Amino acid sequence: MFLTRLIYASTITEHFNPSSLEEIIEKAALNNEKNNVTGMLCFNRKYFLQCIEGSRTDVNKTYNKILNDKRHTEIILLDYREINAREFSNWSMGYVPTSRLSAQINLKFSGSSEFSPYKISGASAYMMMLELKNSLPTV
């Protein structure tokens, strides 16, 4: 089994409502634990940035579900690679909301303190998520 990491960005659609985020996190945590998928989700009320780790098959199945979820649009694959070890192995789905602390981290890895995942490279997105994991409390 090859471990794989996938990072994508997306924008919410009109199908996204105030309860959608909680539903996404709860369902992802249950499904990911069952499928041995780990990861992190960043969200700022408009954009998602997500890292998914696991076996190639399970990561691809998870991403396929995301591609077909009407709450997302403009889904862009930022990075996809085989990995030697997981970085989010303790998280079935960690969630990092936008905060003043995350603004400093956004600036470090992009051209702005505002969260805009379409304006960063896959490598920068990955490094930003690692820093968020180590610096901020998660929900």
TrEMBL record:
Originating species: Pseudoalteromonas neustonica
Protein name: BLUF domain-containing protein
Origin organism lineage: Bacteria, Pseudomonadati, Pseudomonadota, Gammaproteobacteria, Alteromonadales
Origin superkingdom: Bacteria
Annotated ranges, domain BLUF: 3-94
